Every structure is written in C-alpha cells, then in structure tokens.
C-alpha cells in the first residue's frame, strides 16, 4: 500500500480512537472527582493535553504509515490493535470509573507497547522514522507518573 492512503487511514484510526476515548471519559477533566484530586505538582494545564495528543497522533500516524508501507505482519497489526485498545480503555478506567490502579496498569502496558514499537521495529527502511515515537514515549512517561501520583496521594 502507498504512504498517503496509509497516512489517511492511520490519522482516521488514531484521532477516532482519541474521540472514542474522550467520549468514554464522560465529564473527565471537568468532573468533581478529577478537579478535587490531589494532583501532581507537575500536572500540566488542561490545554496541554489536547496539544500533546494532537502532536502525538500526527507523529504516530506518520510512523505507522512508513512501518505498514514496508512491513505488514500479524504481529505488527496485533501490537497496533493492542495500543488502540489500551489507549481508549485508560480514559474509561481513570476518568469514568475512577479505577486508578487498573488505569495505572493499563497506561503502564500502553507505555511498554510504544517502547516495544520503538525498540523492535528498527529495520533499515523505518529506523529513522521511529524517532517520531519520542513524543508519545515522553508523554506516556509523564502521564504514567501523574496516574501513579494520584494513586499514592489520594
């Protein structure tokens, strides 16, 4: 498959996943539960989350387009599907159900999946494109620390 159709496909899937995750959040970041949490001092302002996820999903979609253009395997497809499921389910567990420990487990697994993409799929044709995963990796480390802080301090 060619790059542009793949890019469009992954942009739709990734931003669609964000939309579904946002829908599963319910009141999310504006809920009484969340606003009254003892949050980490390094919690960014609300607008940063939208900006970060927009950048992350654009970079991730470009990376996936290059990966899938040259390499299609059941493993790569399965890891991608797992990433989508984990990404969407974290919102539901944390914001909607207030299940902080299961959410921490999910976001930790999601972090491991993205690191798996970075360290496993380093073929010559994709090697330099894997650095597009860095914003996702950094953000997940921050988000995991925020989730852990909420678990320990509330």
UniProtKB/TrEMBL annotation:
Keywords: Membrane, Transmembrane, Transmembrane helix. This is Tryptophan-rich sensory protein. The keyword Transmembrane helix applies. The lineage of its organism: Bacteria, Pseudomonadati, Bacteroidota, Flavobacteriia, Flavobacteriales. Belongs to the TspO/BZRP family. InterPro entries: TspO/MBR-related_sf, TspO_MBR. GO terms for cellular component: membrane. GO terms for biological process: tetrapyrrole metabolic process. The chain crosses the membrane at residues 45-68, 75-93, 99-119, 131-152. It comes from the Bacteria. It is found in: Membrane. It is a multi-pass membrane protein.
